[in-house]
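Hey, I was hoping to borrow your eyes for a little while. A protein chain has come my way and I'm curious about its shape. Take your time with it, there's no hurry, and the full record follows here:
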Amino acid sequence: MPASHPLVAHDTASSRLIQALRGRRPEVAPVWLMRQAGRSLPEYRALRSRGSMLDACLDPALASEITLQPVRRHRVDAAVFFSDIVVPLKLVGLDVEISAGRGPVFAQPVRTAAQIAELVRIDPALVEQRGGEIADAVGRTTAMLAEESAQRGEPIPLIGFAGAPFTLAAYLVEGGPSKDHLAARSLIHSDPAAWHDLTMWLAEVTGRFLALQVRAGASAGQLFDSWAGALAPADYRRAVLPASAAALAPVRAVETAEPVPLIHFGVGTGELLADMASVGVDALGVDYRVPLDEATARVGTDLTLQGNLDPALLFAPADVRRAAVHDVLTAGLAARAHVFNLGHGVPADTDPDVLTDLVRTVHDWRAQ
């Protein structure tokens, strides 16, 4: 690993998060929150008063500042890079925008074998060739985190992330968000060869995007599968899992003294946890539907678990919320190590003071 990488230069390898991801349980449970950077923070809304979401993701100064905002305010144990799962698709030239209140929308859905054949001719290497702003943003972020770490007296790592191939394929085939992902699920059965070509191409595109973040300074990575829970387990194993595994290959190819820890997370994936764990990751994110001790029973004790407070509890009375946090931390003792998180992302209308109190509650808790 280059001596300039934060795992070495900033000693993020000794941070609470990286220790836990590698299976060593620190005395204080590490905590970060999916979607901790963004809509819930007034300072974010002030910065984002102009321009589109994708413009912000591709502006290194803006993206790095947004990434740092929750670290300063909430004192979480890690930053997660401010970006979006469709950014690598934008980099390779697809016409995609993020519609306010809706999500990613593609001007040209990809639904036929001919359309897929044309799409997969695009070289995934364009992600690196056009990813200079991403690398710049990561570098700026890790430099700012080093300053924050010096003030706090403990290292704060950056988590990179990328979308899993099924979730990206679902957006592409549907043309945008969908409640049931019927078009994507139908393609799995009606043209499995085209589906395979699409998801394996997406695996390389999104894998290169995650590897780009790791090379630029991310100390861990998360593969995020928003829609995998829509699939039957047999369909997931046959038509999705191989591409998810392939998406991690570019990250593993990054030369490091020790492998960069990887997290696999999906929504509604209680029946898929053992399969998701099988791709060789260090940690498994668990949504709020499955208690962590039950998740441990399903996947064994060779993995760190991440999660999994129901985001709805952010709107509960303080005593109810704090008791639920303690329940999650207690259930997490069943795993080899535990990273506290929500069981999904921070809702946009969350009170930031509640998030700060949540982090404090986690940090104050000690295993009995």
About this structure: The mean pLDDT is 96.
